Amino acid sequence: MLATIQVEHTYNGLVDSMHIYEPQIERESLSKSVIDFYENTNDYRLFSQVKWHGWFKPFAWIYQHISKRIGQLNLPFSAKEVEMTGRIIGISETVDGRTKPRVWLRKVNEETIFVAIYSFHEGEDRTYMDIALPLPGSTMIGTLALQNKNGNLQLTSKQQENAQQAGIYLAVGKQVLTLPLEETFVVGEEQDGSLRATHKMRIFSIPFLTIKYRIVHKNKG
Q: Out of the domains of life, which is the source (predicted)?
């Protein structure tokens, strides 16, 4: 999957500036560390705990045999905390077709876990974060709406009155299908200065996966 990626630019973060998501987010109301994480992602260490919900574990176990081969959504089956190492690779806008695309490659013990291509687009008077996951013969795309939530940053694919383009889609050639999936991230700062994030996923509105992240600046970790 990575063989066709050609480095076009050097980026340090998932976004150049979180200003592009204003006024839907209020930077002044968010932790400066949360903003810095998205703008300087390479400066942080990421520790994760994966929890597959009980009813979904048989499906997760079966999929694990596929995910190891394709190196995508290759999440640990164990709930033990592990460090995800990663790097950000800028790729060609011409090849990707979106604005300033960049790959966030994440690994656990040198085994590829995620290959996610980040970009953004404007629609309905707001800016969405677009996360594309290349799959064999197709691409899964999460279109996320950002907003402040109880002092934290929330990113969600759940459609809302002012975010009708949010959702998770599967692109196969020129066909784009809406998937019965929903994901929500909540990112905030802890009292010790570290960040914590929770990623929840649902299928047909039923929870099946929760990932908890502990995020530490490399100068502090």
A: Bacteria
What is the DSSP secondary structure assignment for residue 11, as one 8-state letter?
Answer: -
Which residue(s) pair with 134 in the sheet? 139
| AA identity, residue 44 | Y
Query: Can you tell me the distance from the alpha carbon of 153 to that of 89, in angstroms, rounded to the nearest whole number?
Result: 24
Measuring CA to CA, which residue among 53, 13, 30 is closest to residue 211? 53
Domain 18-217, CATH number (from 1.10.8, 1.10.260, 2.60.40, 2.40.128): 2.40.128
Residue 117 to residue 119: CA distance in whole angstroms: 7
Provide the phi-psi class of 71: left if phi over 0, else alpha when psi is between -120 and 50, else beta: left
Question: Dmax of the chain from CA atoms?
Answer: 47
DSSP run (H or E) holding 83: strand 82-90
Per residue in 73-85, is it b (16+ CB within 10 Å) or e — as a string?
Answer: bbbbeeeeebebe
Contact (Cβ atoms closer than 8 angstroms) between residue 9 and residue 92: no
The DSSP element (H or E) to which 213 belongs, if any, is: strand 206-217
